[in-house]
Amino acid sequence: MDKKRVYVTRRIPDEAIELLRKHFDVEINPCDRGLLREELIEKVKGKDAVLCLLTDNIDKDVLESAGNKCKIFANYGVGYSNIDIVTATKQGIIITNTPRVLDDATADLAWTLLMVVSRRIVAADKFTRNGAYESCDPMMFLGREITGKTLGVVGAGRIGFNFAKKAKAFDMKILYTDIVRNHKMEKELGAIYVDKENLLKEADFVSLHVPLLSSTIHYIGEKEFSIMKNTSVIVNTCSGPVIDEKALVKALKDGEIWGAGLDVFEYEPNIEPELLDMYNVSIVPRISSATMETRTKMGIVAAENIIKVLNGENPDDCVNMEVLK
User: Fold this and answer.
1) Which residues have C-beta within 8 Å of that of residue 153, sequence separation ≥ 6?
2) Which of 30, 69, 204, 228 lies 20 to 30 angstroms, CA to CA, from 96?
3) What phi and psi values does residue 152 have, to the nearest 5 degrees?
């Protein structure tokens, strides 16, 4: 009996690939780049399952090319805004993601960006490497202190909670906002629930941890930047379109906020050009989950979801539950 066929759109850690190969015939994109649209449409044909990335645009044409034989697209990431869920559901294709396993890594990266921006690490590093350091100047690379300041957490889900928990080590006052209150966060961390406007007005540091929905596109724009402290720092590790990038550029240029740390961008992989030359912005290319431990766990979760579905079982992480019904 022929093995079922799985296509992987980009190389992921070997442990996940080997797990799939124990059960299926696995083909992996051999290129050190994402697939072109035409390549993706062609490669999913005749496959029983596809393991895809957030950078893959799984639209109607791709799903229709996969056809009825394909039972699952396992997304390698928590988000799944890259997939046409409506079309997938109509075709009976299960869509899964990889929640839970990247909470620590993402929260860690958000803190890294917060610190790097606040203490001007990137600029100071370049200055030193370029041989410009000759003596200590008391006014050189003055940053912003973190300890004892007010932290604003936007989105109190698993990652937002994990991020806020680390603030206790810095004796920070924690404010948070969400569509529902997180009583565990209030009880265990002493976090204070406020509305969006008051959070932005009071916080010295704002970190975004909301899902990408129609209601969160440009959640932070000109209006929001105008009410933030001119000494504040904003960090985004959730989804690029949550921030209006042009408004961010304006806010940074006009001194409405002090700095920004970004792991995601509004029109990935493109970045608003002016951000690239700003000394008060730190940018990294979607590395919030980029630890060997986490990326391996993500691959294993995606592989296990594929194995279950192709064995006739329900996956652990289905995002379009209607298909299972």
Assistant:
1) 160, 163, 164, 174, 175, 176, 177, 191, 207, 209
2) 30
3) -110, 120
Domain boundaries, given as residue ranges, for the chain: 5-99+292-323, 103-283
Q: Do the domains spanning 5-99+292-323 and 103-283 agree at the CATH topology level?
A: yes
- CATH architecture, domain 5-99+292-323: 3-Layer(aba) Sandwich (3.40)
Q: Which residues pair with 173 in a beta bridge?
A: 150
Instruction: Give the H/E segment covering residue 292.
Output: helix 292-310
DSSP state of 55: T
CATH of 103-283, one of 3.40.50.300, 3.40.50.620, 3.30.70.60, 3.40.50.720: 3.40.50.720
| b/e burial code for range 270-286 (CB count within 10 A of at least 16 → b) | ebbeebeebebbbbbeb
Which residues, given as ranges, of the chain have pLDDT below 50? none
Q: In what order do the strands lie in the sheet with 5-8?
A: 25-28, 5-8, 49-53, 72-76, 94-96
pLDDT in tens, 140-190: 999 999 999 999 999 999 999 999 999 999 999 999 999 999 999 999 999
What is the token pair recorded at 30? Answer: 């051999």
Among 41, 14, 39, smallest CA distance to 29 is for: 39
| Distant-in-sequence, close-in-space partners of 309: CB < 8 Å, separation ≥ 6 | 49, 71, 72, 94, 96, 315
Specify the 3-state DSSP secondary structure of 90.
helix
- Sheet containing strand 233-236, strands side by side: 192-193, 173-177, 150-154, 205-208, 233-236, 259-262, 281-283
CB 82 within 8 A of CB 57: yes
Residues in the chain, overall count: 325
